[in-house]
RNA sequence: CGGAGUGUGGCUCAGUUGGUUAGAGCACCUCGUUUGGGACGAGGGGGUCCCCAGUUCGAAUCUGGGCACUCCGACCA
């Protein structure tokens, strides 16, 4: 991709009102654009990052055996009345009437919708389990949207739902998803803690949250450095859990930290299926409710969370996994014979490497500054200095190396 | 929903004891010179001063009401 063609141009100043790192940097670098509080456009660079995040999630979720679908975002009131959540979740749901007076909601989650699909298509234990997921926009009437893209009124999420014949099978799958989540966050480079939390409008049971340790986070969590125990502040406060010692292993190595919640998994038992009449016949012809769970990851929030934990004075520092491009190619005017950026660009593309080529007719300083701001992990420079080689520099380091094009391709593919 | 802050070209801001035709830097357009860390010269275009009402001979500036954004709190997968 040519940088001269990428929309929009980078900004010199962060927006006046921006305070959080993700807000300042993602806006300045041209990844996102704000329509109103909590409502953002993902611009070409931002969308590329979210697509990369989604690709990782998709790959790992597919491994659990789940299948991808796309469910509607416009929901009738009736389906929400089946579980009583039209009233219970009134505060967070966008509810409205059309001109005939019929009532609808914009989707804030899909438990009811998923179960409606399932009950229409299953009769026997042999039809189970079923696990479906999709990537879609969630609408939530947040009392206070904030922190750039971290808490929006609409945002993108991967949500997965599963139903099972028995409790045992349910927990087996739940554990499978938990492991998939850990792989997803690890691949993206996040330091994630699993914490217990209360279920809010979703369930009276405790649920598991996946928390990225970050100063800019709005959650406060406690976790044990010796074992896997963790809980959010609300749970610790409400249940009066002692946090001097770990409730699980009795170790005193309890840490308190600010964190960003990036994923959540909910064991629902049979509460929802009983209310929505999602039953199947077991081996003995007996009617039974399905065991149900749901599992979410906020993919746009993950982009913001990464910026919160990985940036410096100059800009964002992406890693290879979620960077919008593999390399940033900079060409400086050169008189001597050597590599021409055009040739390098074409060669890299031929090898399936995603290149952002800064072909603009502007000063060297401006190119370097934009390069640091956008934060692609590898910078390649072609200039009078580089001759028959290319300058190679990692975003997070000041060291520069000179490699042949062949070697560069080898390194990028390896 | 409570508290605080902010609203002036595309962006960041100055201007406010009320007084010509509202300014700067950046960005943009034209021409030329530049090119290893946000270059330089010359010329040029661009404004419902957030909105509405009021006070006044006269309002970006004063008064009242509203709206928007950011932060803190309440709230929250």
TrEMBL record:
Report the residue ranges that make up the Aminoacyl-transfer RNA synthetases class-II family profile domain in this protein. 33-324
Enzyme class name: ligase
Is Cell membrane one of the keywords UniProt gives this record?
Answer: no
* GO BP, one annotated term: prolyl-tRNA aminoacylation
Q: What molecular functions are annotated in GO for this chain?
A: ATP binding; proline-tRNA ligase activity
**InterPro entries the UniProt entry points to:** aa-tRNA-synt_IIb, aa-tRNA-synth_II, aa-tRNA-synth_II/BPL/LPL, Anticodon-bd, Anticodon-bd_dom_sf, Pro-tRNA-ligase_IIa, Pro-tRNA_synthetase
What PROSITE patterns does this protein map onto? AA_TRNA_LIGASE_II
Sorted keywords for this record are: Aminoacyl-tRNA synthetase, ATP-binding, Ligase, Nucleotide-binding, Protein biosynthesis
Per its record, the protein catalyses: tRNA(Pro) + L-proline + ATP = L-prolyl-tRNA(Pro) + AMP + diphosphate
One Gene Ontology cellular component annotation?
A: cytosol
- UniProt-listed Pfam families: HGTP_anticodon, tRNA-synt_2b
E.C. designation(s): 6.1.1.15
- Give yes or no: UniProt keyword ATP-binding: yes
Protein name, as recorded: Proline--tRNA ligase
